[in-house]
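hiii so my PI (J.) wants the whole complex modelled not just the main chain, which honestly fair. so below is everything: two entries, each one labled with what it is. i double checked the lines twice but i was tired so who knows lol
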Amino acid sequence: MSRGSRILILFSSFLLIGVFFFPIWKIDLQAPQYPEGIGLRIWVNQISGFKEFDLKNINGLNHYIGMKEIEPESIPELKIMPYIIAGFILLGIIAALLKNKKIVFAWIVMILITFSVGLYDYYMWGYDYGHNLNPTAAIRVPGLTYQPPLIGSKQLLNMRATSMPDIGTYIIIFSLLIFAVVLYLEKKSKKV
Amino acid sequence: MKKKNLIIVLVAVFGLSAILYNCSNSGSSDNFSDAASKVYVAPGTHDEFYAFMSGGFSGQVSVYGLPSGRLFKVISVFSQNPETGYGYSEESKPLLNTSLGFIPWDDAHHPVLSKTNGEQDGKWLFINGNNTPRVARIDLSTFETVETIEIPNSAGNHGSPFVTENTEYVVASTRFSVPVPQKDVPISSYKENFKGTISYIKVDKNSGDMNLAFQIVVPGFNYDLAHSGKGPSHDWSFFTSYNSEQANTLLEVNASQNDKDFIAAVNWKQAEKYAAEGKGKRISAEYCDNNYDENAHKATTKKLNDVLVLNPKDCPGMIYYIPIPKSPHGVDVDPSGEYIVGGGKLAAVIPVHSFSKMIKAIESKDFVGEIDGIPILKYESVIAGEVQNPGLGPLHTEFDGNGYAYTSAFLSSEIVKWKLGTWEVVDRIPAYYSIGHLMIPGGDSKKPWGKYVVALNKITKDRYLPTGPELTQSAQLIDISGDKMKLLLDFPTVGEPHYAQAIPADMLEKNSKKIYALEKNKNPFSIHGEKEARVTRSGNEVHVYLSATRSHFKPDNIEGIKVGDKVYFHITNLEQDWDIPHGFTIKGLNNAEMLIMPGQTKSVLWTPTKEGIYPFYCTDFCSALHQEMQGYVRVSSASSQTKLIFN
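here's the output for the full assembly
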């Protein structure tokens, strides 16, 4: 591995620290009654409101449709994910130190798998919240479920829910791209 | 004249008449199309200024937007308000306590914004209670009354609460002189026994907490209005007085005999020094200082028993009298702090005094007499100029910051614009009708926003649709951005507007609280979650710790209440969402409804008098299932054995 590649791998690994400081996903709700906006921010280790009390208020609104309360403490993934990210940072550093292209390759494969599993897991949580509704809820619309989209917008009664990746995810993608470019360049230079 | 020529002449005369007629008529509905666009604030957009109007005999303060004239809120200050529970809830009742007991009404005259370096700082609004002398402080992040302090040795707290340049003090002068201290004497002993007082209330820079620092005992005139100095006159306040005749009956005649009355000029820095040096005397005086704690959502009354009094005879250099033509009303200080404008309501001119000349006159002891230790300065030595032909009955003056002053004239019902320094009248505009105070945003400060002047009128007659003998009170918005004043808008007001204040919206808007944080709620009867909701009894006192959140109360079924119980409902609004208040009432509530903001707790007392089932419900349409937000209380006979249960 060239010196440049190692610096890029190190840089890209440290870049991942940013994931701890920015949410990875966001769900924004638009409704006539909320001109100031209301929404959720999903972090590697927590779920917070877009504003201070948004999580509480969304839980409050959700009780009308019988959705169970979103309690970040009861979601085990939020406890595991920080370690996984830390693992990727460490693995990247090791790859750079050992000048090992195989680890770089493994890193890319593993993060793609982790990302896909994470997305699927997020979808399943959404499915659970959206479908597992209290049968005695005040508002029951036959056939209507409240699963937010994975990416994109969906009208749920008076709320338009928009789900999008947030800065944390973009950091991961950027990191991944650097890893991929390094691997590509290294392979190319070997051929020459 | 030939027949043909005669016809031409007749046609010409008719034609000309028609043109003239049209011209003269166009004046009545003149150019308001242009005015409409100047006061139009499009739906969903905000006004440029907040205006705070005194409610006069309503006892409250109303909040308007300018230039639209839209009413946003009535702030409860000196009067009970069954709409919100102010003065009815256990938490707010202490704000209306005085040494004469619970006084649920007052006459609110002069709102004054707090200032730093003579400019508005957007922290607090002060307003006087005229009848049972009080001063209130309103917090401008919550738009709620947070303190009321009573002024002892006073009656008719009219010349109040004009602040000093950095809100070091709020002043209060007594309109009615009374015995100091109060005692039972013949009214005819007025000259011997009756005194006036000028009070200085210290304002804590950070908390805003008010404390009565000292009172100056002055001759028994009627002290009317006031303003504090700024810039060079920072250390001084000015108070008008009338009835220097010291009449005690038929004042409209007997107090209008002297050719001149006085402006009392008080050097409060000097007074402060004398107070610190122990030149004053502590005399016993009962009064209340009531403070509202925002985190406890609760007011408490502090009873005080004495006050420091300064006598001008013992304190040379503290106070002077400046003569002013006949029965003055307002006294206003221009933005530079140099000119002191008196409103001689029966005078033919507006006298403008010079602060620098006053200081010179004091230094050269240019006195023409003395009353009770107060030297009287020579009018001619202090006067800077007189505004000739200022309109009849000049009352109050505000400033635009561009070198012009605007004086309201009650009798000729107009605003007169004149130039500082040359004293010449440059423009005048009618007011409909009988203007009292007038207000330019920041027009009493060092930094006026001279875009509008608001006329605060006493009579409206035919200006609006009639509503029987009692008509609305009214304000008028006038554009002063050009050379000519231009009427833009009439709008009705709450109660009688005396003085008003306005401040650029962006100075307050960003600080306006959206909710009260539930976790900071330290009310002793608050609950922080539904799990804490409960009912307790000790003797015949029942406490219901009730939670309110969309769209239910907890508990909502209560049994075991008995006739004659004192039932306190302590309602906590658990919401932390913007603009989601809940209301509470119960059938037969011999009190008022409670309107509870998110994160707030309010307590209301109910004493059931008959057995039966009593529904309670939310009075503020809070949600789609608001109509479901209800509960029942079962009331049994006093001797019944019904167990206290709740869900």
